[in-house]
Amino acid sequence: MDLAAITIIQVINLIASLALLSIGLAVIFGMMRVINLAHGEFLMLGAYAVLVPTQAGVPLWISMFIIAPLFVGIVGVIIERLIIRHLYGRMMDTLLATWGLSLLIVGAMTMIFGNTMEGISTPFGSFTIGSLADSQYKFFTIGITAVVLLVAYIVLKFTRFGLIARATMQNSDQASVLGVSPPAVYTLTFGIGAALAGLAGAILAPISGVLPTMGAAYIAKAFITVIGGGEAILTGTAAASVFFGAINQTTTFFTSSVVGEVALLVAAIILLRLLPQGITGRFFRRGL
Amino acid sequence: MRRRKFLKGAGAAAGAAIVAPTILSSRGARADTIKVGAMHDRTGSHGIYGKEMDDAIKFSIDEINASGGVLGQQLELIAFDTASNMQNYAQYSQRLATQERASVVFGGVSSASRETARPIFDRYKMLYFYNTFYEGGVCDKTVFVGGETPAQMIGPALDYSMKAFNAKKIYTMWADYNYGHICSQWFKKFTEANGGEVVATEFYPLDVTDFSTTITKIQEADPDMVMSGLVGGAHIGFYRQWPAAGMLGKIPLASTVFGPWEKSFLKAEEIEGIVSSFHYFQTMKSAANDDFVSRWHAKFGSDYAELGTLAVCTYNAPWLWKAAVEKAGTFDREPVIEALESGISVDGPGGRVSIDAKTHHNVMSTAIAEVRDGQFDIVKTNADVHPQDTAEVCDLIANPNQATQYIPEI
Q1: Domain covering B9-148+284-364+389-405 assigned CATH 1.10.510.10 in the classification
Q2: What mean pLDDT is reported for chain B?
Q3: Is B404 in CB contact (< 8 Å) with chain A?
Q4: What are the structural domains of chain A?
Q5: Is A207 in contact with B210 (Cβ distance < 8 A)?
Q6: Which of B52, B91, B3 is nearest to B304 (CA)?
Q7: Within an 8 Å CB–CB cutoff, is residue B217 touching chain A?
Q8: Cα separation values, B216 from A193, A259, B153, B229, B246, Å
Q9: Is the pTM for the entire model greater than 0.90?
């Protein structure tokens, strides 16, 4: 019974982590059709943006919720202005450009910080259910993910900016006829996507450790989740996270972490064979 | 015609390259200074281990030179930063063998790097010292190992902790490469010989960072003790998640790898009570160690990170070699190997180390430490611990023509 409870918490935690690290990519790739291979590096920059201020004495929560998203968001805006805006509609070119960018960012961070793993201690204590104990940080991750998804939904669905952003992504010519400036909307949307990645990196930092090459471990999972989710970026990301997260964590529990990762990949292949448009290509089609 | 000519020329050049080292090395030995090679990963993923080794070899050679050199000749150290990249090991080994004609090479950090360099030194018949603690079993006439084998680290530590914690059921976790796999087998053998039981053996790829499932599984299995053979930067996550889950102090935790390198990334309250065992800890109380540490600080600055067994094993190796060369009266490889096999020993900062002739490993003192307030607190020391695992399978006196690594069969 204790075991079942704690396992369920771990499954939900993994689902939340998957959704959190994919949501920024869902905006940039799902909405803007930019294959952002530098997504993992955005996560990494977010992790460093929480590590460096924390080591300098800034309270953890300020660096996590303000400095990290803001910094990575600004980096995203600069990258969009310099590189990405020339490449809209040329998907393969965005792939090459962002791949080069990812190598550049990893190289630059390695030069500055060295190729060594650093870390921050996991905040909060532990909780116990019966005889089993686990870290309270899991509830924190789950809570933050829920809030982020909810805010993203409200912004896209109910605010004027959300409406303009969705309209611009669907038909930028029509939107510009109606007085919207598509380049500004693109820049802002890309910046928001980057900021979300930065926030995810900041929240993952205390459990994973921080290293210039850490992005590589997350990029594949993020793409699988977003592609598995399909057209509707929020519903899709959430649904795919639930599907892959549950499979990965349950398999890990009964076998080992290696088999868990394999199970996730196998599940992704089967899913895309049965639902080539992703989960929201068939279900929740009217979702957002 | 042209092509044939080219092939002929290339063949001759290749032939010359193969013959050259033997001709040139004897000339090299008569030069004014003696060249000594070193290869350590100062940077890259193994940089946390390689930096102190690289500094230790420089320190050791400097001190030997200051004390008058070897056989009255000064040593010239050619040290490479291999940057945790196996291609560099292949390239620099070739270069040390053919171009620099070094008399001896000290180096290698990971087992993979040793297995890259070792065949090259075998081929060129060069004396090679490997000074990292490792999975054991290397049995090679031209190779000497200065680091600990599992028998030397796990043996006494397991004996101590099984008694101290009254542990019978042990849960084990290992890094998923040759070090972890081979160590896990030795560990099982030692545990069963001590009357215990290994209840789980799990392997983790080097990039795994999330250990929460493992921590739950450990609680479910409710072992008397947990043994961690986790390696490298990503696995440090375990030492953060274990206390975050409230497990610290509930189940005793021991490790075959945990040294000052890992410790420096963690807070004192996260690692209280972890048991670890090596030849050397900086916290050892002895006149030799105090003197060594103050000399080291005088050279590299007193803010240098806490030293570990890697630095000391690397520091000892050239002194063992010097003693052997001076006993043999020559730098030539075969008499030096013979001299090393005659039972050379030195008193290093961590205590006495001597060469075991049959295995080319070191018989050494080892210490068991428990982390108290962020410091390695020495709880027990053992003199003259033999590399029992390797000795069971390797005898280079009876069968000298070997260049292999044995893997335990259980």
Answers
A1: no
A2: 89
A3: no
A4: 2-126+134-282 (1.10.3470)
A5: yes
A6: B52
A7: yes
A8: 34, 17, 28, 18, 11
A9: no
